[in-house]
Amino acid sequence: MARDTLTGSRIRERRVMAGLKQAELASAAGISASYLNLIEHNRRGIGGKLLLDIAEVLGVEPALLSEGAEATLIAALREAASDPKAAPVEVDRVDEFAGRFPGWAGLLSDNRRRIASLERTVETLSDRLTHDPHLAASLHEMLSTVTSIRSTASILNDPADLSPEWSARFHRNVYEDATRLAETSRALVGYLEASGDATSEASAPQDEMDAVLASAGYFLEPLEHSPDGISDLSETLGVELSADARTLLDAHLNRYASDAEQLPHEILAPKMLAGETDPFAIAAALRLSPGLVMRRMAILSGSVLDDDFGLALCDGTGTLTYRKPLQDFSLPRFGAGCPLWPLYSALCAPGMPIMRLIAQPGATDRQIKAFAYAEDTQAPALDGARLLKVHMLMVPVPFGAADEKTEAVGVSCRICPRNDCAGRREPSILSTGQ
Amino acid sequence: MPKHLLLIEDEPNIIEAISFILSRDGWSVRAHSDGTNAVETASRLKPDVIILDVMLPGKSGYDILREIREEPDISGIPVLMLTARGQTKDRELAEKAGASRFMTKPFSNADVVEAVRALALQP
Q1: CA 20 to 30 Å from B115, out of A178, A215, A222, A315?
Q2: Which residues form the Response regulatory domain (chain B) (predicted)?
């Protein structure tokens, strides 16, 4: 049933909410109760002055009766119904459901959003537990130390034929191991406590820098017009960073200033405001490298446009070296990403511009226009290794403007539910429950 | 004549503790702490039993064990594998690589001595 034919249902719903009897509302609107009954059961159309009168009696905007629940609520319900894991529902009656039971529909929509948010958190934490080299190394170190302590303490506990020299030696070993265990466990607890908030966790130098840039909003005004502010920004942003993370941050700030000098805000922003989203076209017009243009577009999008752009960088090994994720497109914190990403297609074809429409299975399934390009970081040499830097700029396609030819991609295999994927390199914990 | 045991393990205090308890049990223990040339050391010493840690610098214990099983001179030496993990897949990996026994850290000294004695008696 179409939304505009459900005006009667919405009038009935609002009347009941207002505590009015059918006869009372009919009388107030100047019609008979039987006629209102036909209207409320959608057997008679309604509009014009009568609709205005009924809306006035009910104390609501006429549009609420004629157009029903908000479009966003309908869209949220449709999105919930499109979940492949959900049981089939009466999608064709979603407007009727939202119109007749706005409270329940709102609750369902809110819960759906909450579930999606929790799923993202689980993904992030699962990703961390399964791919975190720091965690694995710490646990191995602890087990080895505990083994040593147990074995040595067992020897000391049975001092028969143990010479004073050996006894002193083993006492020293136990002391050393106990100290090491205390340090390792304290560091591990601190590390896990820091991960309590999956969105603000920071550990490896790359993570620390990513977290600082995310909290700063990526756009760094002081560097937009002069590199003079690098030292001050490094002091401000890097105050709590480790030495290694600080080194990464300084490299980022220097590159930021250099990029801003080559492609100033005043030149790029008007193009983006005019709707230009193709970094290759901009790079060709301005005779700049596509990688530089992608970096600048990702930085400026947040301050220039309504929709932020994401950016992922990797080196020749496929290791992600920079992450600016999107709400609608997650990037793994550890390990490699999804092999279906255009980022890796570009890695296989340096110098070739790539654009594909992709989407991650998730709350919104939002279509992303992904531009990818791999470029050399140094001049090619006959007997030298080729060093590449690969960029993938992620531009969200506006809702309602999505193309049908979207490729489904994941975050990383470990947390991807697509079991039939040809690119899968390891089982998913989401599908096996392990 | 004491029997010879080669302990391939990178944790110095574990080496010291295991060496002590096995020496006390009558074994002549030699230790090797690097994965890269562990097979060469085993070929040179030709011990009666090998204790092999899985996590080693340079080369994993599984790879070392596979190479030992391919060397005719030392392929028959019983090997006790030590690992920090205890999952089924690790046990399967160890058995597939040719481990004679498998022991999960942290272990007791008595268990190590018992396991080594049992391996030495194997035909």
Answers
A1: A178
A2: 4-120
